[in-house]
Specification:
binds nicotinamide-adenine-dinucleotide; 7-stranded parallel sheet; 12 strands; binds thymidine-5'-diphospho-beta-D-xylose
Length: 336
């Protein structure tokens, strides 16, 4: 039996990772550390269905509190999902991104080193590579060139992680993934925002000319890739994970509206995001060759599953749009 400390396990991808482990790896017990920000949902995880599960509500940047978690448990693996994750918010308030994404990661690294954990996996993003033009793909060799406060904080964390490998010989791994979508995603991100606005008859703000491109991956595929890297990855290596599903924002919104049988007149072109990265696209041949990873779901089928989840789980998102965190559902366009 291994014990895995997952941070940010009440957020979108962390939730899906924990559920995947619970369903597929009876030999891994989960300790979930999450400070429960607006992006978390304590109802996501049903503790009764999980063997050996423990939850701690705390900030990963808090040395004493996180230190207690390491002292109280025999931790084998650390997987760091916890982050401030929304680019628009980083433009308005970068300081919290530095605190959680950089200082929090450093704290986690120091404690992991002190407690000689077996593996440390940092969950990073394609955004650390910057922005692509019409052609080309990001490889693991692409120089880091972050352009938003969010991606700068994630790139800094990645470099700290690598520094612990080179300086202290710590057993670290890094994954960098493209844009995720699927169940449990907070509706500040493009796909759930589009679905929920369409269902509630609200305008869908489309930034700039709407032709920015993202490479979409269904969250189940991402978490499978994360587990592959945790179990079989080589220390000190970075693994790109992508969906092989590039699409312009205007096209993805149009597709969702058509699937929901809603009018395209809901789309509202608005002022562009500052420093808006034009295109992300991943070369993930390394993880495919080394670990035999490939995404299984195409974008069309993944969107069908996602839409049907949001249709079936109205309670989940209605609590967000009308509850304590409703002001976070206001799009950044409405806030600026
Ligand atoms: P999310 O915003 O949905 O969830 C983040 C979680 O971290 C929340 O539960 C929040 O409460 C928790 N958290 C925030 N600050 C914390 C702190 N100081 N201490 C403890 N917990 C804290 O994010 P997500 O979309 O699930 O992303 C998870 C990770 O994956 C992030 O590191 C992100 O950079 C990375 N990533 C996300 C995407 C994507 O498309 N969403 C793509 C690639 C990489
Ligand atoms: O209202 C919107 N209108 C719009 O046109 C929103 C919220 C977004 N957009 C555009 C901006 C992007 O080009 O849609 C695209 C996707 O935007 P987001 O959902 O905000 O994601 P992005 O900025 O691409 O970053 C995401 O993927 C990489 C995650 O938020 C990051 O955590 C991850 O690292």
């Amino acid at each position: 039996m291994k014990t895995c400390l997952v941070t940010g396990g009440l957020g979108f991808i962390g939730t899906n990772f924990i559920k995947y482990i619970a369903a597929n790896r009876k030999d891994i017990a989960i300790i979930n550390v999450d400070s429960v920000t607006y992006a978390a949902n304590p109802c996501n995880i049903d503790e009764k269905t999980m063997t050996g599960y423990k939850f701690y509500k705390l900030d990963i940047a808090n040395n004493d509190e996180l230190g207690n978690v390491f002292n109280e448990n025999n931790i084998d693996y650390v997987v760091n999902f916890a982050a401030e994750s929304h680019v628009d918010r980083s433009i308005m308030n970068p300081a919290i991104f530095v605190r959680t994404n950089i200082e929090g990661t450093l704290n986690l690294l120091k404690l992991s080193l002190e407690h000689k954990i077996e593996k440390f996996l940092q969950i990073s993003t394609d955004e650390v590579y910057g922005s692509l033009g019409k052609d080309g793909l990001f490889t693991e060799m692409t120089p880091l060139s972050p352009r938003s406060p969010y991606s700068a904080s994630k790139a800094s964390a990645d470099m700290l992680v690598m520094s612990f490998f080179h300086t202290y010989g710590m057993p670290v791994l890094t994954t960098r993934c493209s844009n995720n979508y699927g169940q449990y995603q907070f509706p500040e991100k493009l796909i759930p925002l589009t679905i929920i606005n369409a269902l509630t008859g609200k305008e869908i703000p489309l930034y700039g000319d709407g032709k920015n491109i993202r490479d979409w991956i269904y969250v189940d595929d991402h978490v499978r890739g994360v587990l592959d890297v945790l179990e079989k990855g080589r220390f000190g290596e970075v693994y790109n994970i992508g969906g092989r599903s590039e699409m312009q924002n205007i096209d993805i919104i149009t597709l969702i509206l058509k699937k929901l049988n809603k009018p395209l007149s809901l789309i509202k072109y608005v002022k562009d995001r500052a420093g808006h990265d034009r295109r992300y696209a991943m070369d993930f041949s390394k993880i495919t060759k080394e670990l035999r990873f490939n995404p299984q779901l195409n974008l069309n089928d993944g969107l069908d599953l996602t839409i049907s989840w949001y249709l079936k789980n109205e309670d989940w998102w209605k609590k967000i749009i009308s509850g304590d965190y409703r002001h976070y559902y206001k799009t950044m366009y409405e806030m600026r």
